[in-house]
Amino acid sequence: AQKITQTQPGMFVQEKEAVTLDCTYDTSDPSYGLFWYKQPSSGEMIFLIYQGSYDQQNATEGRYSLNFQKARKSANLVISASQLGDSAMYFCAMREDNQGGKLIFGQGTELSVKP
Amino acid sequence: GAVVSQHPSWVICKSGTSVKIECRSLDFQATTMFWYRQFPKQSLMLMATSNEGSKATYEQGVEKDKFLINHASLTLSTLTVTSAHPEDSSFYICSARDWERPGNTIYFGEGSWLTVV
């Protein structure tokens, strides 16, 4: 079974608008972490935001916020005020604490920002 | 600057030859490193967990004799693709967790593009 699911292969958003990228996860480990990464065409993995399973508040990092709904096992990424440079692949990933530091990635969402 | 450095960034090799990719942690000791493989337009797939001083742990379906992993020091893990074939052409990327920092501190190397001709 898929542990991390991103159901949007591609998304379009108008410049300066907000966009939500969906991510759901599945784990029985009570202690885990959820990550979002941006991957431009160069291939580098750019860390965006992190949410720990015990964190009470939703994580925010600048224009990025994570809508963490633990009961629904979802961790959607919200990008506010989209910029042309936001066009890239976005991956949601999970680290289960009983599995060390390895990350399991979702399928990814390709975001295109339109001028 | 980079905290995890990967080398080479690009490599082209002939079919049947072996190629080695290095992953170094620059500012911290990494007892564990992770190797991923990514085909175009696809996700990162975990290949193996590299353990310093012991054998790597391979994910199901990954050929351990094909993808040799050595983690001889606390700052260096190497992935050797042996007898490479065109279907091994892919993007390979490593990561490492800094255990002395919060749980979100996982660093990725720059990645290595392998083309087998």
The count of strands of chain B amounts to 11
Order of helices and strands of chain A: EEEEEEEEEEEE
Relative helix content of chain A: under 10%
The average pLDDT value of chain B, as a whole number, equals 92
Measured distance between first and last alpha carbons of chain A? 38 Å
Low-confidence stretches of chain A: none
How are helices and strands ordered from N to C of chain B? Answer: EEEEEEEEEEE
Number of strands of chain A: 12
Q: What global shape of chain A is seen? A: globular
| Average pLDDT metric of chain A | 94
The shape of chain B is: globular
Summarize the main sheet of chain B. 7 strands, mixed
How are the elements arranged and paired?
The complex is a heterodimer of chains A (115) and B (117).
Chain A: E1 4-5, E2 10-14, E3 19-21, E4 24-25, E5 32-39, E6 46-52, E7 60-61, E8 64-69, E9 74-79, E10 88-96, E11 104-105, E12 109-114
Chain B: E1 4-7, E2 10-13, E3 19-25, E4 32-38, E5 45-51, E6 57-58, E7 67-73, E8 76-81, E9 90-97, E10 106-108, E11 112-116
Parallel strand pairs in B: 2-11
Antiparallel strand pairs in B: 1-3, 3-8, 4-5, 4-9, 5-6, 7-8, 9-10, 9-11
